[in-house]
């Protein structure tokens, strides 16, 4: 079972039910391999309002962590993202974090960090998917696979559904300020 794929495809399904939002997946199945660079290129071509990249983290931690590019990075001869994308990513990441924190409260921490606070981002200045992005980009680490509580939340169908519902409502709040959504519980 691919949790990232399940969450992404379920999120697309929930967002597609709102006529004000168009949602595009960067791959067609869990088994398809798409590089982080290619994901950014797909979002760029679509002129997306926001590129969300879903992952599960490892290491010592608990809860969800959102990462955004605060500055341009470099990979090979390529620099990016542009300053405007960094600024827009920061604004949207802050809005999304605030909305998720309101929904989860103390039940599931929601952390906000910059790409540079990752191992790859520290080396490159930004994550690879951010470097090639020309649209606002946020990487969402949904939980820590080393943490039994996070694994329980991510693997349980019912709590994962609550997580996806909260993400969908928060994405709508972020992209459509003033959107009235019903809080979910985790």
Characterize the structure shown.
The protein has 186 residues and is an alpha/beta fold. 45% of the residues lie in helices and 17% in strands. The chain contains 7 helices and 6 strands; from the N terminus they run H-H-E-E-E-E-H-E-H-H-E-H-H. The protein has helices at 3-16, 36-45, 83-104, 119-124, 128-131, 148-155, 157-175; strands at 51-57, 64-68, 73-75, 78-80, 110-114, 137-144. The strands form 2 sheets. The protein has a 4-stranded mixed beta sheet. A hairpin with a 2-residue loop joins strand 3 and strand 4. The two termini are 21 Å apart. The model is unreliable at 180-186 (pLDDT under 50).
In brief:
The protein is of the alpha/beta class and 186 residues long.
How far apart are the first and last residues' alpha carbons, in Å?
21 Å
Number of helices, counting only DSSP H or I runs of 4 residues or more: 7
- Unreliable spans are 180-186
Strand order of the largest sheet: 1-6-2-5
Q: Over the alpha carbons, how many angstroms does the gyration radius reach?
A: 15 Å
The portion of residues forming beta strands comes to 15-25%
Order of helices and strands: HHEEEEHEHHEHH
Described by strand count, sense and barrel closure, the largest sheet is: 4 strands, mixed
**Beta strand count:** 6
What is the global morphology?
A: globular
Overall mean pLDDT: 88
Computed structural class: alpha/beta
- What level of helicity do the residues show? 40-55%
Structure keywords:
alpha/beta, four-stranded mixed β-sheet, 186 residues, disordered C terminus, two-stranded antiparallel ribbon
């Amino acid at each position: 079972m691919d949790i990232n794929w399940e969450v992404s495809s379920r999120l697309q399904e929930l967002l597609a039910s709102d006529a004000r939002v168009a949602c595009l997946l960067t791959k067609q199945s869990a088994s398809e391999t798409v590089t982080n660079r290619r994901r950014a290129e797909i979002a760029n071509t679509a002129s997306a309002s926001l590129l969300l990249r879903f992952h599960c983290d490892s290491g010592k931690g608990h809860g969800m962590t959102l990462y955004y590019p605060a500055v341009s990075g470099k990979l090979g001869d390529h620099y990016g993202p542009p300053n405007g994308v960094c600024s827009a990513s920061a604004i949207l990441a802050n809005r999304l974090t605030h909305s998720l924190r309101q929904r989860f409260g103390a039940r599931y921490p929601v952390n906000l960090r910059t790409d540079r606070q990752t191992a790859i981002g520290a080396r490159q200045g930004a994550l690879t998917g951010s470097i090639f992005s020309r649209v606002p980009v946020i990487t969402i680490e949904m939980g820590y696979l080393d943490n039994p509580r996070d694994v329980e939340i991510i693997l349980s169908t019912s709590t994962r559904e609550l997580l996806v519902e909260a993400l969908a409502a928060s994405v709508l709040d972020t992209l459509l300020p003033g959107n009235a959504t019903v809080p979910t519980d985790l």
